Amino acid sequence: MNLENLTRTSGEWLRGTGPESDIVISSRIRLARNLAAFPFSNRASAHQKAEIETLLRERIAKLELDAPLEYINVPGLSQLDRLFLVERHLISRELASGDGPRGVALLPLETVSLMVNEEDHLRLQVMRSGFALDEAWQDVDRVDDALEQKVNYAFSEEFGYLTACPTNVGTGMRASVMLHLPALVLAKQIDKVFRALQKLNLAVRGLYGEGSRASGDFYQISNQVTLGKSEPAILNDIRQVIPQIITYERQARSTLLKESKQSLQDRVARAFGTLRSATMMTSEETMDLLSSVRLGINLGLLEDISMPTVNELFIHTQPAHLQKLMGATLDGEERNAARARYLRSRLREPNPN
Amino acid sequence: MKCQKCTKAATLHITEVLGDDQYDELHLCEECAQKYLYEPQQKSGGGKSGEAVASDEGDETAVSQRECPVCGVKFVEFRNSGRLGCPNDYQEFREELLPLLESIHGDTRHAGKTPRRLPQTKQTQAELNQLRKQLHQAVTKEAYEEAARIRDRIRQLEEN
Questions:
Q1: A188: distance to nearest CA of chain B, Å?
Q2: Are the C-beta atoms of A229 and A171 separated by less than 8 Å?
Q3: Looking at the DSSP assignment, which residues form a beta bridge with residue A124?
């Protein structure tokens, strides 16, 4: 796959379409699977890992999906390209930084990603723009069924799909919905929402998963339990709670408009002004300012910029994306200058597009 | 030798592994040894967490050092890394894993999707497990011809 072609788009998860897409960014489901006849990746010898990779790569190549999958050999990628795929949520950090033979098979539309020799032998991931857990489940279930015809999964009737880490055993499924919650953050109500979610056994993470802080006010809500519940039941737990959070966010937004419209307007205008005039810009600051701009557009406070452009800027200003767009590897300082330059060029007035 | 906690003869000798080449040796009579082994459980008030603690501090050597015959991983390695070594570990360490699964998931039994070709898979899985073991032994014995034969059989099963 030509990664350069991907740099020009924003990818499936920031496409900005789909149901409730002003708040729900994307829906994602991943399944963890292992081959019955091999030790788990962490215990497999280099030779076994090579065998696992060859076997899965061959079987994946024979899958008949809507479009042909492209297989990328991860060790053959530069550090920059690996980070680029991480930023697009196409591979995990673990797959990017691991060792030994490993790879990922992708659909050109970036909706399907099959990781080989991650923590588990196989991680199947499906991503959809907006609030679309059911569609994502149907897709990943279908890919799983097709692969199951070709390989022997490690499965026990008692414990379900067997995984390297017992936190994934059973369905092996992690379903997550990414939300943009700037008003709840501004209103300092976000912690209350999280505490409620934790009581429901749902996990909350930042934009780039485990341990990452919620930059840009993006939050991923996902299930923690994988054993003892069916996939539809797990999805239902998440599906039921998302509309409530959407309602809270909308309430917080209308309260902000009612009670502090002027300061909100000022905040949005300053964010936009900074983005298109600053000469040095860190990734973190960019995310925070873009978050305010995104909120401003959704509330009709800002009309000089379109939603697809903002969504695209969120990903294009990430370190690896930026360097690929600039066609050069840049250190921190250079990157901050390049990021500001890029933002200025994209937000220059009068906006030609 | 006398028991360290009473005057009876010490019949049980327990070596506690404290990590980093540090050991603690205990010489106890049967009665005191039992008390000693069950003490942690009482401390934490019994119940599920108690069982976990008991296996943490109680029969440390027995459980922790037991290893899976298929992949060779020891239970103590799993406890340190949080990662199991192979699918067979779920059978091998079933008793130790059950309380853990209960506390993570609130359940210990799968209720989701089942692979459609399960009957065949189960049988094949058992055979594959067996073959893996044989392969490991063959390689250890440096019986490479036999190993190659076993590997071909594994491939064949994988193909089907």
A1: 30
A2: yes
A3: A31, A114
Residue B23 has pLDDT above 50, yes or no: yes
CB contact under 8 A, B158 and A149: no
CB A247 within 8 Å of CB A283: no
Report which DSSP code applies to A62: T
Closest approach of chain A CAs to the CA of B80, in angstroms?
12
Q: Is the pLDDT of residue B111 over 70?
A: yes
pLDDT surpasses 80 at B21: no
Out of B86, B121, B131, the one facing A43 most closely (by C-beta) is: B86
- The predicted model gives A281-309 an average pLDDT of 93
Looking at domain A3-252, its CATH architecture is 2-Layer Sandwich (3.30)
Tokens 């079933």: give the residue: B94
Candidate from A39, A169, A231 with C-beta closest to B85: A39
Q: Is the pLDDT assigned to residue B104 strictly greater than 60?
A: yes
- What's the start-to-end Cα distance of chain B, in Å? 62
Cβ contact A35:A69 at 8 Å:
no
CB pair distance less than 8 Å for A156 and B90 = yes
- The percentage of chain A sitting over the pLDDT mark of 70, rounded to a whole number, equals 93
**Chain A residue with minimum CA distance to B73:** A43
Structure confidence at residue B124 as a pLDDT band (50, 70, 90): confident
The Cα of B66 is separated from the nearest Cα of chain A by a number of Å equal to 16
**Looking at residues A246-262, what average pLDDT do you find?**
95
Say if CB A221 and CB A177 are below 8 A apart. yes
Q: Binning pLDDT at 50, 70 and 90, where does residue A212 land?
A: low
Question: How much of chain B is helix, strand and coil, in % rounded to 5?
Answer: 60, 10, 30
**A66-70, A199-203, B125-129 — which is least confidently predicted?**
B125-129
Q: From A226, which residue of chain B is nearest by alpha-carbon distance? A: B105
- List chain B domain ranges: 1-39, 67-109, 120-159
Identity of the residue in B104, B113, B131 whose CB atom sits nearest the CB atom of A167:
B104
Cis check: omega of the bond before A350, within 30 degrees of 0? yes
* Residue A176 C-alpha, separation from nearest chain B C-alpha, in angstroms: 17
CB contacts, 8 Å: B139 with chain A: none
pLDDT tens digits along A127-178: 998 899 999 999 999 999 999 988 989 999 999 999 999 999 999 999 999 9
Q: Residue A299's closest CA among A274, A273, A269, A278?
A: A269
3-state helix, strand, coil in chain A (%, to 5): 50, 15, 35
